[in-house]
């Protein structure tokens, strides 16, 4: 995306606007497949639920991880909407419902699709048996999330020591435990988490086999880090480690899938906003823009992710603060950005903002979420 393109899109569509480049989506998907050729990527729709993104990844060969019935239907309808011949009848190939806790209404609605769903405790298993008896189940393990930007292990995953009993419980109820899954935490730059998680999963699979139940699917979850800064080691280095551990620990015929979210979409989007106010507070220049932490920059709050702002204007950079448009004091985009002196009506932009950003935007203060513009669809 060139500066010229961004400025012209902002002029044509107004701001705030988020520009999604589908060439980058396809490039990210191709990089994932290049380095993990034996892993089927189930794009985690929660990272960015734009239907056009689902269509682009589907055409590239991806499958999908969904967290709710609306996400399931979004994927299902967009797959169904594609030309005949490209449709899939066997839904597990294309969708995993990977939210371990599901309301009974969701399970009831899912059952007719004979879905693949995750669980991590006995109460969930009872619910699945009662309301979605045609589901295949995948047990989510708790694994180390050390150093990941978003930690998930305090909320999800069974204790590895309970895993084989939970797999057996599924078989005893007449359900089929098809697989194991884990999540090492989002934006996982500590690759050791993957190594340890694979080790834990392999031990559970071995014990389950020795007790008569062979597990066919290994779901290595999400967490693959986006290159937000130069400290993030390349994806190829992580993939090398994962491939080596998989070769070492698992049978050749194991089916491996992953649920990458951030890695596939983060770098594909840039947001553009307009400076709508300026002031000097305690000697520091402060700018107010027509986006906010309740909108495109929601990832600052929910995702613990910091975004940097850039200006199209040249000039000596100085430390400044950038605030959002709402009346809330929490709405601070950054207290320490380096920008040249800006004028009201100037445009500013923020790169790598495709994951967990517009996906969690609200209508707070009556401001609608930013417009979305798709490039190279
Ligand atoms: C079950 C599950 N799978 C996949 C993901 C995607 O993770 P990431 O965006 O870190 O790849 C998440 C994120 O929260 C998740 O909860």
- Principal-axes geometry comes out as elongated
Mean pLDDT: 96
> Helix tally?
11
- Spans of 5+ residues with little confidence (pLDDT < 50)? none
Helix content: 25-40%
> Which CATH top level class of the largest domain fits?
Alpha Beta
Return the CATH topology of the largest domain.
Answer: TIM Barrel
Radius of gyration: 22 Å
> How do the helices and strands follow one another from N- to C-terminus?
HEHEHEHEHEHEHEHEHEHEEHEEEEE
Small molecules bound: pyridoxal-5'-phosphate
Question: Which oligomeric state applies?
Answer: single chain
Q: Tell me the CATH architecture of the largest domain.
A: Alpha-Beta Barrel
The CA-CA distance between the termini, in Å, is 13 Å
Can you offer a commentary on this structure?
- The chain is built from eleven helices and 16 strands.
- The strands form two sheets. Strands 1, 10, 11, 12, 13, 14, 15 and 16 form an eight-stranded mixed sheet that branches.
- It has 377 residues and is α/β, with parallel strands linked by helices.
- The protein has helices at 3-13, 22-35, 51-60, 69-80, 104-111, 122-131, 163-172, 192-210, 235-249, 262-265, 299-302; strands at 17-21, 39-44, 63-66, 95-97, 116-119, 136-140, 176-181, 217-219, 255-258, 269-281, 284-289, 310-311, 318-323, 332-339, 347-350, 371-375.
- The chain has two domains: 3-17 and 267-375, Beta Barrel (Lyase, Ornithine Decarboxylase, Chain A, domain 1), CATH 2.40.37.10; 22-266, TIM Barrel (Alpha-Beta Barrel), CATH 3.20.20.10.
- Helix 2 (22-35) crosses helix 3 and helix 7 crosses helix 8 (192-210).
- The protein is elongated and about 70 Å long.
- The two termini are 13 Å apart.
- Bound molecules: pyridoxal-5'-phosphate.
- Pyridoxal-5'-phosphate (PLP) binds at residues 44, 47, 65, 98, 183, 186, 221-224, 259-263.
- Pyridoxal-5'-phosphate is lined by residues 44, 47, 65, 98, 183, 186, 221-224, 259-263.
